[in-house]
Design goal:
The complex is a heterodimer. By secondary structure, chain A is mainly alpha-helical. In chain A, about 55% of the residues lie in helices and about 0% in strands. In chain B, helix 7 crosses helix 8 and helix 9 runs antiparallel to helix 12. The chains are: A mainly alpha, B mainly alpha.
Chain lengths: ~260, ~240
């Protein structure tokens, strides 16, 4: 149970004091207000009889036992209310009654458990800002020292040897050396993409901790390593004619 | 002077009630909430997040950095667009002129190029991070699907941009790539024709890929990013802690 906030406690104390003062000073008011429910039969039909009975008996009980039950009710109510010793009157002179006390969890399903939270400003925004600055600085400095490649004008009559796709497609180009182009260029990447999309619907174990998902993690690691190795081979170990070479012997055939 | 400005109708028309720019900022929990709640940032971030969500070691900022790199690429890309015409006769010359006789032209083109490669890496690593945290488990399955679409769109954006310098590297890299797509079963030739705007790569391809690169794919990816970020919040913020 969460702690009752301080301002609510203070408000409850004030209400209690006010009620106390009224009890001491205005005894004449009390009987008048206790007669109010009788004088308000116009609202009567809307309230079911058994509820009226119940509240009536409760009032009798309260009268016999003093103010104790009222304070007990206040303790279970979500908003602390003062001990309603003399019938508190509403704005129109009508009587306020406690119809029912709904305990938390009886009809509401409380799902939100209190979590440890921090303000986005400054805690998250500062981190994001610094990260953005670092990446900008890195890109800027890298761009100052390393030029983007601009080879000679495109020429359809002169095929460079080797011709390589952008690095992220070099895994596929590597597959081309092993399979029919339809398999390497369409089927395998298509299946890989499809499986990737299906992953959350296939991996249905409830656990998120690495030790609970050894199989999923092994499979994904193998998958990622498979592509990483293919890309590395395609990038650095393929020379003229897309033949296998060692970069330290034949040199690099790679442009970003 | 400052209070005059802050009291003016113009000022209060710009900053909504509750904005920290109306009354000034002093550090208090209420003002910390107002910074987010009464600014456009509220579209992206809630007022509070789980404490572990701000730990750099958990996310490595990879998703946010992918988005930031996209913004960086948009800014540098707009600069490049001022100096570039997508025709076979002019494209390479424009890039060459940009590099040799436009102030900061070479630098901005370099930044665009490296940021593009960096974005592919960042998106890829973000995917790996999400997988290893099991963050795609319910209720976040669909956001993973959106994420895979975003990865594909990122690759397509990078690939369409690859052709634009119209040099030997661009031409033959794209030739290798599109030849592979031509092997799509049943309608491979049609796919290739639609992509190239012709049976062979040429000036039509350049225009087509230029429009894809600067307009259509960014438009599509922004829509998917909006859904992606919205779902992150609706699914209860980032996952974890483990």
């Amino acid at each position: 149970m969460a702690e009752v906030p301080e301002h609510l406690l203070k408000r409850a104390q004030q209400a209690r004091d006010r009620a106390q003062a009224q009890k001491g000073g205005g005894d004449a008011v009390a009987p008048e207000s206790s007669g109010a429910p009788a004088s308000g039969p116009s609202t009567g039909p809307k309230i079911p009889d058994h509820l009226l009975d119940r509240s009536k008996s409760a009032r009798q009980q309260a009268a016999s036992a003093g103010t104790a039950p009222a304070t007990a009710a206040a303790a279970t109510a979500p908003m602390p209310v003062g001990p309603a010793a003399p019938e508190p009157t509403g704005p129109g002179g009508g009587t306020q009654r406690l119809l029912t006390v709904v305990k938390s969890g009886s009809i509401q399903d409380v799902k939100a458990t209190p979590t440890d939270k921090v303000h986005v400003w400054p805690h998250l925004l500062v981190v994001e800002f610094v990260a953005a600055l670092v990446v900008t600085a890195f890109t800027l400095i890298f761009a100052i020292f390393v030029n983007a490649p601009l080879l000679e004008l495109a020429n359809f009559n002169e095929t460079p040897n080797p011709s390589k796709a952008p690095w992220y497609f070099l895994g596929l180009q590597e597959l081309l050396t092993m399979f029919h182009p339809m398999v390497a260029g369409v089927t395998i990447p298509g299946i890989a993409l499809f499986l990737l999309i299906l992953a959350p619907y296939v991996d249905r174990g409830p656990g998120k901790r690495p030790e609970d998902r050894k199989f999923a993690i092994s499979l994904m690691t193998i998958h990622l390593m498979f592509w990483a190795i293919l890309v590395l081979i395609g990038s650095f170990f393929r020379g003229p004619g897309f033949n296998f070479v060692f970069p330290w012997e034949a040199g690099l055939f790679f442009d970003l | 002077m400052m209070s005059n400005v802050q009291g003016s109708q113009a000022w209060s028309s710009i900053f909504r009630p509750g904005s920290i720019f109306r009354k000034g900022y002093s550090d208090s929990p209420r003002n910390r909430s107002y910074v987010i709640m009464n600014s456009v940032l509220y579209h992206l971030h809630p007022v509070k997040v789980k404490r572990h969500a701000v730990k750099v070691s958990y996310t490595l900022c990879l998703g946010g950095l992918s988005f930031f790199l996209f913004i960086l690429l948009t800014v540098t890309g707009i600069f490049l667009m001022f100096f570039y015409r997508p025709t076979a006769a002019q494209a390479w010359d424009d890039i060459y002129t940009l590099q040799t006789s436009v102030a900061f032209g070479l630098l901005v083109r370099n930044m665009h190029r490296w940021a593009a490669h960096l974005m592919v890496i960042a998106v890829f690593l973000h995917m790996a991070r999400v997988f290893y945290h099991g963050a795609y488990k319910p209720p976040r399955e669909f956001n993973w699907v959106i994420g895979v679409i975003l990865l594909t769109l990122t690759l397509l954006l990078s690939f369409t941009g690859y052709l634009l310098p119209w040099d030997q590297l661009a031409l033959w890299a794209v030739t290798v790539g599109t030849n592979m797509m031509g092997f799509t079963p049943v309608f491979g030739d049609q796919v290739r024709f639609v992509l190239l705007g012709s049976v062979e790569i040429g000036t039509d391809t350049l225009l087509r890929w230029y429009v894809l690169h600067v307009l259509m794919l960014p438009f599509v990816i922004v829509i998917f990013m909006a859904i992606h970020f919205w779902r992150v919040r609706k699914d209860g913020g980032i996952s974890g802690p483990l």
